[in-house]
Structures are given as C-alpha cells and as structure tokens.
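Hi P.,

Sorry for the delay on this. The queue was packed all week, but I finally got your sequence through. Input first:
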Amino acid sequence: MHSTRTYLTGAVATLVASTFALTACGTDTASTTAGSSRAASGTASVEQQSATPRLALSYDGGILVLDADNLQQVADLPVDGFIRLNTADNGRNVFVSTSDGFRVLDMGTWTRRHGDHGHYYTAAPAMTDMRFGGVEPGHVVPHDSRITLFSDGTGGVDIVEPAEMLRGNGKSATYTVPEPHHGVAVARGDGTLVVTQGDEDERTGIVILDKQRNEIARNTQCPGVHGEAAAAEGVLTFGCQDGILIVRGNEIQKVQSPDPYGRIGNQAGALDSPYVLGDYKTDADAELERPNRFTLTDTRTGQLRVVQFPASYSFRSIERGPGGSAVILGTDGALHVYDPATAEETRTIPVIPDWTEPEEWQSPMPNVYVQEGVAYVTDPSAKTITAVNLATGETEAQADLPHSTIELTGVSG
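Then the structure:
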C-alpha cells in the first residue's frame, strides 16, 4: 500500500503555525501568552520556537526517529508487533498502525529558545494518548485539510482534523461501510466521502456519499479496487485489477488497462500535477510479481501510459518529487526520475547496491520517501539511510542505523 502524499491548504497551514505557537507539545497556553506579553512590554526576554523536520522508520520491535537534515538519531521508541507508518501531513504527527487501531506519534518537531542566555528546550518524540479506528488498520489519506483512516477489520472510517491533533484532541467523525473489507476512504473539503465498496471476498469499486452519507454516485467496474492518489484540481484516482478510476467532482471515469489483467494497485499523486504515477502488474496468478513497467495516467484526458522500466521495483518504491516528477527506486539500487508529461527519464541517481524484493511484503526492503526535494533511501541489508538531493543528484547525508528498517515516512516540522 502506498499513502498519497498530499499537503495542507493555506488556511490550515496558518492554523497549524498558530497552534504550534500556542500548544506545541503540551506547552501551557497561559504561560506562552504571558511570555509574549512580557516581551511586548520590554520587561522580559523573548521566547521563540523553530521547527525541525524528522523521519520515522519502523523495525521489528520499534520506531527510530531521525533528524531529517543530518540523519542523527533522535529517539528509539519500543513498539510491540508489526507496525506500519503514515505521515499525518500536519508537520508533526505520524500514524502508527498496530493490531488494534491507529496510534499517534508526536515527532517532537520543535525547539524552544527562552531567555537572553539562549537556553534551548527540544521536544522529545513520544507516543500520544490519541487512538483511532479498530482492528486491521489500513490506509491513511491526508486530503483537503482532513485525514481519513480506514480500518479493514471493522469497515470503520475515521475523519480527523489535523489541527485538532496538534492540540492533542483525539476526536473524529465516523462512518461504517456496509461490509468490512481491505479498503480506503477519502473525505473531501465539501463534506462528501469517497469510499471503496466490497466485502471480505471481493472488492468491486467505489461510491461517493454526500454530507448525510446518502449515495451520489458509484462505479462497480473496478475489480480488486486498491489504493488511491490525489492529483491537481481535486481529482482522485483508485486502482483496479484492469485499470484505474478517475473521480472528478461527483463524476467517475473508468480507464481500462491495455492488458486484460493490468493491475494498478499502488499510486502516488502530487497536488501540483495532473499525472498519477502507478505500478503495473500483469500476472494474475503470480505469488509475487516483480514488475518492470509502470503507469502514468493523465487525469484530465484519461490517457493511461504504460512505461518500460530498466529494473524491477516494489510497492515501497514509488514517490513524487519536485515539480510533480515521478520517482522510482529500482532494484538496481538507483533512483529513476521521470517527467510525467513525456514519460522521459530525466535523471538516474545510483544510491544503494542491487537488491531483490522479498517474498513476504512485511519483510525489510529498501524504501524511498521524498520530503522538501530530498529523497531518503533505506538499505536494510546494510542498515543505512541516504539523503539525496533530487535536483542535483548529490548525496546530502548518510547514516548507519541500529536496525534493519521496514517502513519510512516523515514530517516537515
């Protein structure tokens, strides 16, 4: 599964910034306000805060937190069981999927300077008391200043406001689909909800619900519906075993794959691009297919292009870069950057040695995550992480890790 990286709107970003100033990591609102008043009167020193981007990496037994700038370890948090990580895209929080729901990790992405002597107080990453969802937590989708969580085991949908999370309020609006299944949901800014439909035996498509959760539209021509992405102009896509669904407003378009079985199960979108990057698999009987083609879909026209790839890749290998560029980490150990409009490869950046996707998807394997124009690549065999500037192709930092890591995400601070 791949969670689409979308970004907060300007209004929410402003609210996030003000929330940091008032309530960052448990800061007492009254004391902060008092400090500001004293500073304004010129009778006391100024209290200032700055943010620090960080990375979260899961391993068997816990979560590593790193400084995204220098890759130094900030924390090693023990967590039992197999976990998955998804950014909340609110600058500060990461969702940690455990066996019984979604927990929330505070990445501690701020530093406070107090007094004329320049004493700094840095927030430590820690698990919060906020919990959402139920058994078999699945997809996490930040979109339109909302975060939508889907619990496969219950069919429960939780819609969370990122600014409320920053205040430590674990509140959500909820909805339950008719039948539990491995699904995904996306809450939109107009109050509508797009959610997959299916049961434990099959998944057939998506339905659009209004604010009162009455049906507006549906499409049942998407066998094995899986994953989502967001593109420019509020467009959403959902993958099928034989193509992709494009949602524009309340209209749903099915785009057919050129192969009878042409599965697009994982996608990566960018809000500044009309193109969606997707994987592409054509062997319906394969236990594990290692694909050597990928897809680029123009959501304006519905044109689906299948592109040959010089190596193989995994579901943890597809990302988006600056300007909406398509970024794929190949099993040749290189980052391959493509212009999504032309499907031309614009840069190849060798990063790690050749690797092979493991038989079990839960096993450690190389991972790529892009933040602020930097691609972070893990190599669990060597226990390393490398930061690569996608604009220049230069390595900005590299670090050894104490564990073989599985998943990787981050927060901007």
